[in-house]
Amino acid sequence: MYKRILLKLSGESLGDIEKGRSFSPESADYIATEIAAASSAAPQTQIGIVIGGGNIWRGARATGIPVDRVSADGMGMLATIINAMALRGALESKGVKAKVLTAVNVYPVAEYYSARKAMEYLKAGNIVIFAGGTGSPFFTTDTGASLRAAEIGAEIIFKATQVDGVYSADPKKYPDAEKYDTLSYSEALSKGLKIMDASALSMCLDNKISTLVFNLHIPGNIRNAVTGQQTGTIIKP
User: Fold this and answer.
1) Most buried in the list 154, 188, 203, 223, measured by CB within 10 Å?
2) pLDDT tens digit string along 33-79?
3) Residue 74: other Cβ atoms inside 10 A
4) In sequence order, what are the beta bridge partners of 47?
5) How many angstroms separate the Cα of 20 from the Cα of each of 89, 133, 193?
6) What is the largest CA-CA distance in the chain?
7) Cβ neighbours for 234, distance < 8 A, ≥ 6 positions apart
8) What is the mean pLDDT of residues 72-97?
């Protein structure tokens, strides 16, 4: 069992790609149900969450909107706040206490982030959703997740994805790709594996934070991960 974990979710996990919807009530309900089950199975484990904003905004290059990089990243940060608030609502509908803290000051919409406030909420039994990225441009939500994990003293980052672990190549394109059960961060960096960006991996390495990559869409996987069962690929310092 873990004392404190950081769950990293993509913004797309709240949407429905097949139907072209940025938000899907069914997706939000599924994720909230899975997180609630994990929290119930391991009530002593404190859970922080970082969620991306890709279902709403993937940057100026992807949309063709003529804004500069700093503005584009700012729009992405705001998208993560919208997603965090939606996820909070879904969790509260399951009877789970949840708070949103954002690195971008949008009071009174959401509370401004501080590590001390986050720790107080976690110790009080709340799931804390971190929004707004790092509050600065040029950083990915993976780096934001690594930073928040380090600040709250999380033992491990759970990166919930669409695949069941880390492979030597994209398993959708290369069926013979090798799946790894365990890796070191040094191996991940040297092999050029696209787990997280290099700065996020380096931050995890420096702060001795492990990462578990698993498939979000297999029911029970978050609960299994929180209770210490390996469900994908674990990357260790």
Assistant:
1) 154
2) 999 999 999 999 999 999 999 999 887 666 678 889 999 999 999 99
3) 19
4) 5
5) 22, 25, 29
6) 51
7) 181, 182, 183, 210, 211, 212, 213
8) 96
Domain-wise residue ranges, the chain: 4-236
The owner of tokens 């990243």 is 73
166 Rama class: left (phi>0) / alpha (psi -120 to 50) / beta: beta
* CA pseudo-torsion sign 189, 192, 196, 198: positive
- Asked if residues 31 and 9 have their Cβ atoms less than 8 Å apart, the reply is yes
- From residue 172, alpha-carbon distances to 24, 161, 163, 164, 169 in Å are 24, 13, 9, 12, 9
Q: What is the mean pLDDT of the chain?
A: 93
Q: For residue range 103-155, list pLDDT tens digits in order.
A: 999 999 999 999 999 999 999 999 999 999 999 999 999 999 999 999 999 99
- The residue among 31, 157, 40, 39 whose CA lies nearest residue 84 is 31
Q: Which residues contact 104 (CB under 8 A, 6 or more apart)?
A: 74, 77, 78, 81, 131, 132, 133, 135
Detail the DSSP E strand segments found in the chain. Answer: 4-9, 46-51, 98-102, 111-112, 127-131, 156-161, 166-167, 179-180, 182-184, 210-215, 233-236
